[in-house]
């Protein structure tokens, strides 16, 4: 019965209790032992039921199906006594009755809890037949009540523990909320001593929560307590006080702002037990509001000063909000209705199409709206305006408001017009200056070409010593004048940003030796020691503008020789971490310290008297500095009066992998002889009669008798009549200039199948970009004016050698 063995039901194995019980095994064991003793029974056990399964105290580690007799007790809630199990249908078929242990007697009392529920029974069983005994039945019922009481007690204990845990968790959560809230909490008793507080409140008084607890409020926050004493008294009287904005001074004397709520708390008897106060520091918010207010005041003032008008059109409320200098733009204040009807009404008709187009792009594409246009006031005053606006839409894309700003830019526009006019005037003046310089250069070079050209021609004649000395004076004077002219033109090009640097390989040793050779005669004539040293690590090929490097070195050496009467001049080329360094040192007159700072300024010399004594324009060092800076370098000077000077130029030039390059042709090196050119057929186009004479004279010295024509048109006609070995073509000529004539000749050569005639440009304008233009026009070389016979001869040789190579190649191919 009731599962004395498991044959009447299905047992589930497993460790531990199958379900949670609010009853201990010890209580079950005590009750069943007493029941066995009272009844003298074979077996007693507590059977509990949950979710259709039973738990038996005799076998606490399994669950079983509910036996019929147990189910009856649960269904009826009544005491069950079976005298003989064989005779009772509720047990007659049970295995424990029909077989071992052959149970007969069975009694069970239900365990009824305080809430009326029945979780199970306590039962006793025996092998003998036993008639009903009310005394024993009552004892078993008492044991069931004992078990129920223990069950209820355990449930109550469990509930209390669960409640405690829940309250603890709630308090922990509340404490966490209090800690996380941006408010300070404090609770006091009626004497205004701190009963409890949040960590934030404790931190505000410089303490921890334990340190603050129990302390008087007056002691902790005297600066706050006294002004608020009235509030505390009112709260202790039962009033609740709320204030959105209250100020006080903290311990550092700073004004703080808080929002505060104070209320009484009551004890179990309903009496006021003290004050609970919650405060929130809103100092930053108040300061931000005040800062915003001040900012708005400043902005309003700034808008008025800057002539800015700001407006907002609220399409939903149909109202216009305005600020700033409205009267600058409109004669009368504008209304919402006026702007809504036609916001473009006051815009100058000339500007309206562009403004409307900008607005459409803003609405359709979201492009920024930033037009500049003219407004016409009612008093016909024209105001140039820079407009900006933003159209704000709702979620459905419907416009809800327009925010805009107008700025008066009339003065700026007038300044721009004035600046543009000034720029045009300056450009015109600059063009006039450039034209003047070009004209003067051409006009000065023409007679110089005659002077220097004839001097070169006469140098080849058989002259007496006196005549040669006089010729040297003429030549040197012409070269000095040419040097001055070149300095002025170079400086003008530098100032205009038109000086171009070439990039080509050159050997620094060759360049330095050339400079040394050029000035050796002058040094010897003055009895000066003149030394050159190129350090081994500085030797080699560099990439840069060798002409400008040579110009710097020549200027420095020329100055050193000019201002040195005795002693020596030393030229040194070295390589440093910053690049190539050229140093020229002398033992000359020296420079006072106060003059060093202005030494590299235009038209400056160490002393104005030096100009009279030594000559010069004062441009040489200024040009050296400008050229050095254009190449990314620098120049410096060290000097003392009577001790000489040292000038150093550092140029960040790139060293080439090449080991050597041929030096550039030099007029002083090339010697022209009639035997080297033979009977050339030379056509020369030159409009100036002096230049014609110079050209003829120089060419006669090398055995050439040229045919000279006065302009490009005549040159084309002469070329058309017969073949020429070479054409010398001036650039600037009347009727037709040189590049145009060259282009015509090249086109007709191609069309008629004629051989290419070498053409050499004769020009006073020999900048790199100008030479490139001549080459693009079809010319093969150039000679700069004033013409040097050596350079003229070198140019002739160069183009004729190329022509010979072309003809030789054609012969081989034939």
Number of helices: 26
- Tell the overall outline: elongated
Seen as an oligomer or otherwise, the chain set is single chain
Order of adjacent strands in the largest pleated sheet: 3-2-1-6-5-4
Task: Describe the model.
With 814 residues, this protein is an alpha+beta fold. Strands 3-2-1-6-5-4 form a six-stranded antiparallel sheet, sandwiched between helices. The protein has a five-stranded antiparallel sheet with strand order 8-7-11-10-9. It has a five-stranded antiparallel sheet with strand order 13-12-16-15-14. Helix 25 links the parallel strand 28 and strand 29. The longest helix has 50 residues, at 410-459.
List keywords for this structure.
single chain, 814 residues, alpha+beta, Beta-Lactamase, six-stranded antiparallel beta sheet, five-stranded antiparallel beta sheet, 26 helices, disordered N terminus
């Amino acid at each position: 019965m009731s599962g004395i063995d498991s044959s009447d039901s299905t047992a589930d194995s497993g460790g531990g209790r199958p379900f949670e019980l609010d009853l201990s095994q010890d209580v079950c064991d005590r009750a069943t032992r007493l029941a066995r003793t009272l009844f003298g029974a074979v077996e007693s056990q507590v059977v509990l039921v949950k979710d259709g399964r039973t738990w038996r105290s005799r076998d606490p580690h399994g669950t079983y199906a509910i036996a019929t007799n147990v189910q009856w007790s649960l269904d009826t809630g009544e005491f069950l006594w079976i005298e003989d199990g064989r005779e009772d249908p509720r047990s007659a078929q049970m295995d424990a009755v029909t077989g071992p242990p052959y149970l007969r007697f069975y009694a069970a009392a239900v365990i009824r809890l305080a809430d009326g529920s029945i979780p199970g029974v306590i039962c006793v069983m025996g092998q003998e037949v036993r008639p009903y005994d009310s005394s024993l039945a009552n004892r078993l019922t008492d044991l069931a009540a004992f078990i129920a009481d223990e069950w209820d007690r355990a449930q109550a204990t469990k509930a209390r523990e669960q409640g405690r845990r829940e309250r603890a968790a709630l308090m922990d959560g509340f404490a966490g909320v209090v800690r996380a809230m941006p408010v300070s909490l404090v609770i006091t008793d009626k004497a205004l001593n701190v009963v409890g507080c949040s960590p934030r409140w404790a931190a505000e008084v410089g303490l921890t929560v334990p340190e603050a607890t129990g302390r008087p409020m007056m002691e902790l926050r005297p600066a706050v307590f006294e002004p608020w004493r009235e509030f505390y008294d009112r709260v202790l009287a039962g009033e609740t006080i709320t204030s959105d904005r209250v100020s006080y001074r903290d311990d550092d004397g700073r004004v703080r702002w808080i929002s505060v709520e104070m209320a009484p708390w009551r004890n179990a008897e309903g009496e006021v037990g003290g004050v609970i106060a919650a405060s929130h520091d809103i100092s930053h918010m108040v300061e931000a509001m005040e800062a915003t207010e001040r900012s708005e005041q400043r902005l309003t003032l700034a808008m008025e000063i800057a002539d800015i008008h700001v407006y907002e059109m609220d399409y939903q409320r149909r109202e216009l909000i305005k600020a700033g200098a409205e009267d600058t733009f409109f004669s009368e204040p504008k209304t919402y209705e006026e702007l809504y009807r036609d916001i473009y009404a006051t815009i100058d008709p000339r500007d309206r199409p562009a403004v409307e187009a900008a607005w459409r792009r803003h609405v359709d594409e979201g492009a920024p709206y930033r037009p500049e246009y003219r407004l016409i006031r009612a008093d016909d005053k024209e105001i140039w305006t820079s407009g900006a606006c933003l159209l704000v839409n709702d979620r459905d894309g419907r416009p809800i408001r327009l925010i805009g700003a107008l700025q008066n830019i009339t003065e700026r526009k007038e300044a721009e017009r004035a600046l543009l006019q000034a720029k045009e005037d300056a450009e015109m003046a600059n063009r006039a200056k450039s034209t003047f310089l070009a004209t003067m250069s051409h006009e000065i070079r023409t007679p110089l070409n005659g002077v220097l050209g004839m001097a070169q021609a006469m140098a080849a004649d058989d002259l007496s010593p006196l005549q040669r000395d006089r010729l040297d004076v003429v030549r040197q004077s012409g070269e000095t004048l040419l040097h001055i002219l070149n300095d002025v033109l170079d400086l003008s090009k530098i100032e205009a940003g038109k000086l171009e640097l070439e990039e080509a390989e050159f050997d620094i040793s060759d360049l330095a030796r050339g400079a040394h050779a050029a000035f050796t005669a002058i040094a010897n004539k003055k009895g000066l020691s003149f030394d050159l040293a190129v350090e081994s690590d500085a030797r080699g090929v560099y990439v840069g503008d060798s002409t400008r490097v040579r110009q710097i070195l020549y200027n420095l050496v020329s100055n050193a020789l000019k201002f040195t009467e005795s002693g020596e001049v030393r030229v040194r080329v070295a390589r440093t971490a910053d690049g190539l360094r050229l140093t020229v040192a002398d033992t000359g007159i020296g420079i006072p310290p106060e003059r060093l700072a202005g030494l590299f300024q235009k038209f400056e010399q160490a002393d104005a008297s030096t100009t009279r004594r030594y000559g010069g324009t004062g441009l040489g060092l200024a040009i050296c500095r400008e050229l050095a800076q254009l190449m990314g370098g620098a120049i410096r000077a060290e000097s003392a009066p009577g001790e000489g000077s040292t000038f150093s130029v550092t140029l960040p030039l790139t060293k080439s992998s090449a080991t050597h390059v041929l030096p550039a042709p030099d007029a002083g090196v090339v010697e022209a002889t009639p035997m080297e050119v033979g009977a050339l057929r030379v056509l020369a186009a030159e409009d100036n009669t002096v230049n014609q004479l110079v050209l003829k004279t120089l060419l006669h010295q090398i055995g050439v008798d040229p045919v000279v024509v006065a302009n490009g048109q005549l040159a084309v006609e002469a070329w058309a009549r017969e073949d020429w070995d070479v054409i010398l073509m001036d650039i600037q000529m009347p009727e037709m200039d040189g590049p145009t004539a060259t282009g015509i000749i090249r086109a007709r050569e191609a069309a008629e199948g004629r051989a290419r005639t070498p053409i050499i440009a004769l020009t006073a304008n020999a900048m790199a970009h100008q030479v490139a233009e001549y080459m693009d026009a079809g010319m093969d070389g150039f000679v700069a004016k004033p013409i040097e016979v050596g350079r003229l001869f070198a140019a002739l040789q160069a183009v004729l050698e190329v022509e010979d190579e072309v003809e030789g190649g054609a012969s081989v191919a034939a």
